[in-house]
Automatic annotation (TrEMBL):
GO terms for molecular function: DNA-binding transcription factor activity; sequence-specific DNA binding. Regulatory protein of the TOL plasmid xyl operons. XylS activates the xylXYZLTEGFJQKIH operon required for the degradation of toluene, m-xylene and p-xylene. Gene3D superfamilies: Homeodomain-like. The lineage of its organism: Bacteria, Pseudomonadati, Pseudomonadota, Gammaproteobacteria, Pseudomonadales. Coiled coil: none annotated. SMART domains: HTH_ARAC. This is AraC family transcriptional regulator. The keyword DNA-binding applies. Residues 181-280 form the HTH araC/xylS-type domain. InterPro entries: AraC_XylS_family_regulators, Homeodomain-like_sf, HTH_AraC. PANTHER family: HTH-TYPE TRANSCRIPTIONAL ACTIVATOR RHAS-RELATED, TRANSCRIPTIONAL REGULATORY PROTEIN. Keywords: DNA-binding, Transcription, Transcription regulation.
Length: 289
């Protein structure tokens, strides 16, 4: 038997837990806490054998392929048995979070999700993959990015599995010039802090989901992407103005979790590493080798 490795993130809106166990006790039955919440369970690797009970009834016995998902209601007195190695990411989302999302988007309250045990879902799988860096380093997790993932998961789960479809019409609202300026100023003045989408939305007198979609409509990018772009612009300023300043200090000053994080984002957005970009500004050449 082995001790499962667990990584966890938690807020009032949801919790995310990655559990990896190479050698679980195949006879152990786990009682899952009974809550007014839904789980979105994404299998990160193949899972050969699993059993799930709802109350006293065995509702599933079988395996899962990598990328498959389950959306059980946690109020169903669930119990499970892990009879093979597994690696999954579980999002526990209170019913209230889904209700709030539907109200904000003019949709009808869902009663639950269709029973889709083991359905293949590449959207939820890739959203789960995007959450893994935050689980590996919760202290450096970006709240804007986490909020964005949660909104995307709610929208996709409701539209694809919700028992009552949303009646919301096409989203047409955009930010007023004042709201757009306020949002950009808040992001620019909080590059090194854990600024949430909800806080910016409140300052703009909008719901979280409406703000996220309106911001993207106004700027062409999501709030989290705008934040990364601003951090890179600040990094450029420091690279150019202070040639002797180390990349470690620049990463910290611009709100990146560490130097590799700065290098990855900078390279993706600029097309060159910070060192190469700095050298190009000075007209020098970096020799690799």
């Amino acid at each position: 038997m082995s001790v499962p490795a667990i990584a966890h993130l938690h807020s009032e809106k949801f919790s995310a837990t990655r559990v990896v166990d190479a050698c679980p006790d195949p006879e152990k039955i786990i009682d899952i806490p009974c809550l007014d919440a839904f789980s979105i369970i994404v299998q990160l690797e193949d899972f050969a054998e699993h059993r799930l009970w709802r109350g006293r009834r065995l509702s599933y016995a079988g395996g899962y392929r990598q990328g498959s998902v389950s959306l059980p209601f946690m109020g169903d007195e669930l119990r499970c048995q892990h009879r093979a190695s597994y690696d999954n990411l579980r999002f526990n989302i209170p019913r209230q979070t889904f209700d709030d999302y539907q109200r904000e988007n003019g949709g009808r309250i869902i009663s639950g999700f269709r029973y889709e045990q083991g359905a293949q879902d590449q959207v939820l799988y890739h959203l789960a993959q995007a959450m893994l860096p935050a689980l590996r380093n919760p202290a450096a997790a970006n709240q804007l990015f986490i909020d964005h993932i949660l909104l995307a998961m709610c929208a996709h789960s409701i539209s694809h599995y919700g028992r009552i479809a949303s009646t919301a019409g096409k989203f047409t609202t955009t930010l007023t010039p004042l709201q757009e300026r306020l949002a950009k100023e808040m992001i620019a003045s909080n590059l090194g802090s854990d600024l949430s989408v909800e806080r910016i939305a409140q300052e703009c007198s909008l719901s979280r989901s409406h703000f996220s979609r309106a911001f993207k409509q106004a700027t062409g990018v999501a709030p989290h992407t705008w934040l990364l772009q601003m951090r890179v612009e600040k990094a450029k300023e420091l690279l150019k103005a202070q040639p002797g300043l180390s990349l470690v200090h620049i990463a910290d000053a611009c709100g990146f979790s560490d130097q590799p994080h700065l290098t990855r984002v900078f390279t993706r957005l600029v097309g060159a590493t910070p060192s190469a970009w700095r050298a190009a500004q000075r007209g020098t050449v970096i020799v690799l080798g």
